[in-house]
From TrEMBL:
The lineage of its organism: Eukaryota, Viridiplantae, Streptophyta, Embryophyta, Tracheophyta. It comes from Cynara cardunculus var. scolymus (Globe artichoke). GO terms for molecular function: magnesium ion binding; ribose phosphate diphosphokinase activity. It catalyses: D-ribose 5-phosphate + ATP = 5-phospho-alpha-D-ribose 1-diphosphate + AMP + H(+). One of its GO terms (cellular component) is cytoplasm. This is Ribose-phosphate pyrophosphokinase N-terminal domain-containing protein. One of its GO terms (biological process) is purine nucleotide biosynthetic process.
Amino acid sequence: MEMEKPQKKQVLLFYCMEAQDLARKIAAQSDHIQLQSINWRSFDDGFPNLFINNAQDIRGHHVSFLASFSSPAVIFEQLSVIFALPRLFVASFTLVLPFFPTGSFERMEEEGDERFYFGDNVLPCFETGIPLLKQRLHQLADSDNIVIAFPDDGAWKRFHKQLDHFPMAFAYFWITDSCSPTVKNIENKAPFEVLSLAGSIADALQI
């Protein structure tokens, strides 16, 4: 007797303006993810004047926010939304932060390492784009002749265990679309290739 697959939950996805392209890609991955909007305005003095559209309608729903902390200038206004959304009587709130710049010193080498930088009321779910990269590597015509070059010691610490079956040593340079400004600078420029996290994020949101 086959076990029934768990139903995917319906998710309302809000996003910052910087992550708009990625948000649309995520929503395109599943009919269970519906995009929502926020009016990102500013007062004359430059402070954020934000408005969450259809705030009454999200009560009792699973809500997510796709953030981008690419620079200190954009963090403050997003924090306002991050604090506001859970207070709108939602069923659950998930913060999706593909690029976590302040986490450089707290990198985990693998699942199970101590997470000392979040409080007890936050349950972090760390995902990585490495499976996506490995899949792409095996699709290459010369997949048997690949050497991995890590740009720095931090990258080696984070990823070497998952890529240890490749020789370690630049014909290819892959980057995910976790940081929109970086993607815009290198998109369609050799040797860079952008791997989208949209599918992985969409799957994680519906668990």
